[in-house]
Amino acid sequence: LPVVVIAGRPNVGKSTLFNRLVGRRQAIVSDQPGVTRDRKEGEALLRGRLVRLIDTAGLEEAAPDTLFGRMRASSEHAVAAADLVLFCIDARAGVTPADKHFAAWLRRQNKPVLLVANKAEGAAATAEALEAYALGLGTPLALSAEHGEGVAHLMSEIADRLPDTAPAPRHDAEEDERPAGPLRIAIIGRPNAGKSTLLNRLLGEERMITGPEPGLTRDAVAVTFDDGHGPIQVVDTAGMRKRARVEESLERMSVSASIEALKMAEVVVLALDATLGVHEQDLQIARLIEREGRACVLALNKWDAVEDRAATRRAISDRIETSLAQMRGIEVVTFSALTGAGVDKLLPAIRRVYGIWNSRVTTGELNRWFEEALERHPPPLVEGKRLKLRYMTQVKARPPTFLLFGTRAEQVPESYKRYLVNGLRETFHLPGIPIRLQLRGTR
Ligand code: GDP
């Protein structure tokens, strides 16, 4: 199991944090003689990852000299074996000389460190916590182990930093982890956009592995093929479209078929008949893709029949991007499913957006950008008071989802959220995919 060590001077709340993280799992308190006596260990399940947690509290009496000497002596063994160190300070007390010495020593150990500013229940303490930036150990995570505030966030931050080992048994919060198996795509679009022709073309050119196999719904079928870069599964809802054709209006049916296909896919190929331009229904489908948080490639089919190609391409992508801010920078592929010309560009484009959709930005990079963004364009006044935004962290990928902390952060107006999302998109190269920004007020 990956080893996570909680270190810091006495009374910063290490044991409280230990108990929080271990939760109901039994703590194993070992009673070995010598330096390791009273060493407290437990297993904690953090966002689906099982870790061995070691609390260095109780070791502090072991060494006689200065406070820093005691901290160091008590942590040395544990830190040497650690995959990650949680260095705790007391946010209310601020950064003490012993904290500084210990931080300097810790930096030299070349271990991944998460700086935890505990006892940060309340805005003033959060401000103190931010002073801890000066320790050179990255962004301090303000939390209250006692009250449980910010602990879930800490758990994700820990999970993000663990070495890659087998994940623990399945757990809800694992949702954003990349599942095993083929990359799942769906080709959706209005009737006659050329979806079936495209699918046949793709399957005609690639080696088919399995298929057709039943999909997840009554009328969907799935086909898995390999283009030499790994397996891809296409969910085809052709059957569903046919049934709907009889029973429902065209408008309703292609949207409901799209919803089904969307739910099964990671990347959605939005197929358009380029000779017809963008129809309101195409936008409706694009909105669904955005709402479901899927990655998307805009596939402009029937390119053989398009006369002014440059103008058509521009008109279509402009229309999509102005209607849907989240589609800014969307990947556009033009081809003819009928002749096959250009179809070879589709799979590489799908893999590109899939990669972007799975992106992760480190908390350090994120906050360096965030500080600049705040400076360039400070948060607006709300009810006469300026919002104090503290820091940001990426809580999940697929699609990239960021959590913004600050005093009354939940009051951030839409326009400012858009400013931040656009900044994230540009700075971290996340074009054409939905980006989620969640707000979390600290008190
Ligand atoms: P679906 O309803 O989206 O599955 O569309 P189909 O694949 O059934 O295609 C609808 C019609 O468009 C058929 O008559 C196809 O031959 C035609 N079609 C499909 N792709 C192309 C293309 O790239 N160029 C042209 N000119 N016609 C196409």
From TrEMBL:
Superkingdom to which the source organism belongs: Bacteria
Annotated protein name in UniProt: GTPase Der
CDD domains xrefs: EngA1, EngA2
Pfam families to which the protein is assigned, alphabetical: KH_dom-like, MMR_HSR1
Organism name: Acidomonas methanolica NBRC 104435
Residues in EngA-type G domain copies: 2-166, 183-358
Positions contributing to GTP 2 binding: 189-196, 236-240, 301-304
PROSITE patterns: G_ENGA (PS51712)
Subunit-level organization: Associates with the 50S ribosomal subunit.
GO molecular function, one term: GTP binding
Purpose: GTPase that plays an essential role in the late steps of ribosome biogenesis.
Family: Belongs to the TRAFAC class TrmE-Era-EngA-EngB-Septin-like GTPase superfamily. EngA (Der) GTPase family.
The keyword Repeat is assigned to this record: yes
